[in-house]
Write a structure and sequence with these properties.
4 domains; 16 helices; about 5% strand; five-stranded mixed β-sheet; mainly alpha; binds zinc ion; single chain; Lysozyme-like; Lysozyme; 7 strands; two-stranded parallel ribbon; Muramoyl-pentapeptide Carboxypeptidase, domain 1; about 450 residues; globular
Length: about 450
Amino acid sequence: MRAINEIILHCTATVEGQDVSVETIDRWHRERKFSSIGYHFVIGLDGTVHEGRPLERIGAHTKGHNEHSIGIAYVGGLDADRNPKDTRTDAQKTALTKLIQHLDEQYPVKKVSGHNAYSAKACPCFDASIYNSLLKNPSGSSLTIADSTLSRHDEGCTVEAWQKQLRKAGFDLNITGFFDEVTEQATRLFQSQQDIVEDGEVGPQTHAVMEAQLPSHDEAQTFAKDALFVEKAALYLPRLMKDLLIGRDGAAAILGNLGHESAGFRHLQQINGSAYGWAQWDGTRKTNFFKWCDTYSLDKASDEANYGFLLHELRTSEKATLADLAAARGLEAKTIAFEQSYERAGIKHYDSRIRYARLAAQHGVLTLTGEPKSSVRAINTLSQLQFALNFLGANAGPTDNIMGPKTSAAISRFQSHTQLPENGSVSPELVAAVQAVFIAFDGLLQGPHQ
Ligand SMILES: [Zn+2]
């Protein structure tokens, strides 16, 4: 057997929703004069893992990096207009996690990379480095930064890790995950302080100097530990909003509690106790969870079972939690309210719950874009905005679709109650904020959907 130390992830660069068989890919690759399919595994839309080229044979997927690696492709990677997009289905994400863990058991895998780490391509259209947190023996949490050069307009976890290091080194900047102008300026300043080439890019030298500056790698390690939580939070935050008709903060508060309870979704079984699952259900609630899984033939470790039972409880026996959640104001208060109403934990640890809730709120934002548009509660016209403002008591006048002084004053009132700049005019941010509050209240009045 050849020596294997890396997993490289790909997409098949096919359109979202279109399934492609291993046989078809094999034919494509043979047409390109490969001996056979270049990937070792292909993950279909339904999460089925298909074997491609045998593992003992060197793959043909990443120029210059095939010899010691395993190539995995998920079916997808392009939107309807053939632009790069992370089109992974839930089933594909779950299968990918399991496959990486399985391979990590069999081989001394040191890192997980995306094809884009070695080539100027979008493939696999998501940040593959987050999967390093799954490995038993990764070659160091700093690896993903050290291996690639970061510069203006880059984005993702590695940029975020770099921003955290800059902050730790004393630079005042926001952790956004985008290599923006501020990040570039901070990088240049750091480079000039350290007497190294001042190019505003983070290459191996800049990275090494930073590593030497910082006493430890805790931030980066904490970040690697949070990777799974961040990925699931981004997925479930908009779902919680939609399924429970609650606002962003409420959904983030729920995820914050789940993150704390399950150590970022990494430990379903309580370490010194009998509790189990995302919410660490115990006693009768745990018994009910297991029965519920049996009824629906679900694996109790699966996301589907955990999310499903959470919704089930919040719509039935724990229904009162939603009212408590809505009554609390702000992310922190909502996080505490959810703990008191739903978790009722022996040990509170609110700092940790709130930390996870903030992470969820921060990372859920990207997938939320456009999400409520299909809902009837979406605000698409000025009269709908007027209606929502009136509903919230901001007195926007008649819902006549005309931007008059009353509507403008109502917008200002709403803005002064939120953290938006007070200018009385309509912006996408304003509409999103009104919509979120409106959904939260409206959901409370109507009761959760079944
Ligand atoms: Zn690729």
